[in-house]
Amino acid sequence: MGNELVIGFSDQMKKKILITGVTGFVGKNLLHYFRDTIHYEITGVSRKKSKLKGLNSLLDYGISYKDLFNQNKSYDCVIHLAGQVIKISENQSSDKLYREANFELTKKIYKHFLNNDDSKKFIFLSSIHVLTEVPDCVIDEDYVPEPFTPYGRSKFEAEQYIESTNHTGKNIYILRPTMIHGPGNKGNLKSLYDYLNSGLPYLFGAANNKRSFLSIENLCFVIKEIIDNDIESGLYHIADDEPTETLELIDKISAISGKKTRKYNIPLSILRVFAILGNYLPIPFDIHRYGKLTTDFVVKNDKIKQAIGKPLPITAEEGMTRTIKSFINNQ
Ligand SMILES: NC(=O)c1ccc[n+]([C@@H]2O[C@H](COP(=O)([O-])OP(=O)(O)OC[C@H]3O[C@@H](n4cnc5c(N)ncnc54)[C@H](OP(=O)(O)O)[C@@H]3O)[C@@H](O)[C@H]2O)c1
Q1: Domains and their CATH numbers in the chain
Q2: Which of 88, 123, 281, 314 keeps 20 to 30 A from 111, CA to CA?
Q3: Which tens digits make up the pLDDT trace of 271-309?
């Protein structure tokens, strides 16, 4: 064969990436997004190593938190996704559970990262809900946080901890995504899809608010740009370019699924009376939910786009279409 030139990446040349919470919705999508990136060596962390088995073909290493804290390996980038997202019943202990998962765990992983001089970048997935649930204006990075839920409070505490540390020589990114959607998503968008798909009517036709969403593809793109380029450390809001009107979204779901939705325009004044009653009665509608349904939640993404110096790869409309189609395909 003679002297053959082998073009490829040696293990030393590969970027070492650590992802916590890799078994979740964002983690799995990120692994698929990175699938063809041959210059990454990816380690996934889970509380249960057995959960990593299905991801073996996408991971170079699968480890537990015990393995992580017992080793002193350096990483080019730590992507900290793990956290308590799914709603747990709100009782006295819910603050504690969210705090343990979203603040204490973040603190531990972040300290471990800081202790390794050769580890370089840390990306923390916080949430736009550290700010508010019901904003009074369009949101940018200057919006003053007033977290309303145990989830928002615990994420904010983690952000404050990270910001209070000295991390000279390292790059730290706090990302605040809006609601993320994509294949495998089990959040509010999927709940809305399931609700409409069941044939039940939509009762809030009179409240056409606008919300910023985030297509998973755009989030994966932002994370990869941060790993591969010299992006300034900082706090960034991550959202698609355009907000989506709720009624437009409902029409889109109907059009793609081929299932007509009946919309009723119950006057907002009547809904508000129900919402006030809901504060005192055991019904799943209260003044807080009323606020969420009727208030715009629009997030600007200029800062991250400026830092990256590129546009986001897909529009809000395209991302939404892909997600709704993925719901239909997975029925
Ligand atoms: N989805 C969204 O719309 C959205 C929006 C804004 C921000 N975010 C943030 O993005 C990150 C990823 O979200 P996701 O939608 O992928 O969440 P997810 O599907 O719930 O996955 C999160 C992962 O974190 C780990 N985890 C769950 N509960 C935990 C706990 N109590 N303690 C420690 N680890 C726990 C689990 O991994 P193991 O069981 O394998 O350990 C889980 O697979 C989260 O930090 C979330 O706050 C999400």
Answers
A1: 1-177 (3.40.50.720)
A2: 88
A3: 889 889 888 888 778 888 888 888 999 999 999 999 999
